[in-house]
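Figure 2 data, in text form.
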Amino acid sequence: MDYYFAVCEGNTELYSILARVTNVVPVATINTALTYYSTEDIKTSFFDLIMDNLLIIIAVFVIVLLIILILLLLNIRVQKKVVAEEHLVKALNKKAYVDALTSVRNKGAFTDYLDKLQERIDNGEQMELAIGIFDCNNLKTINDQYGHDKGDIYLKTACQLICKIFDQSPVFRIGGDEFAVILQNGDFDNRGELVEQFEQGRRMTNSSAVNKWEEIHIALGIAEFDLQNDGTLSDTVRRADRVMYENKRLSKKQSNKE
């Protein structure tokens, strides 16, 4: 004879009672049923837990997204600030190495440029170069007689001619009335022709000048770097300086005769 018991689904407690008071239902069957309903109960309980706390879960999720978004925005802001500071540093470095009046590189840039070339020479690199030193004559006279604004025009006019002729070489203003050029590559090979072109340009400028401060009177000295005789590039600069002063002396002597 078969026995049937009506049991509420999922009522594990009633299942347990039946298991203890009767041997009608096999133990294995009861255990299987208990395991099934226990598992289903856990699943139901977990789902119910999620549904009961859905708003909290959504709120936490939104907060996490907001935190991530804020961190991303902060990171972007920091990156922009870093880029802006890098640009500022570059601008300051450029300003520090550029002459305010003529917009060519200044003495600090000249020293730095020579140091880098010297380092390459010290490392065994063979290079051909020459250094030109330019001295603008009569700057003090122009400043005293016509004013410093006219002296500035004189310097800028002289600088423009130097840059025009030696357009493949870096030009530096290394003093109040002095400029320097480092000749390499094509300008080094054609340095003799460039000096002639410079003199021609200077004479043409002077012939068309209306005022004294528009004229260009420059003493020039060029010295080639000689590894055998120059211990460093500073020695080359000194030799170019001596040549310039000798040309300056001869120019004044010629002017006095005229």
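Caption note: The chain has three domains: 12-52, 54-96, 105-257.
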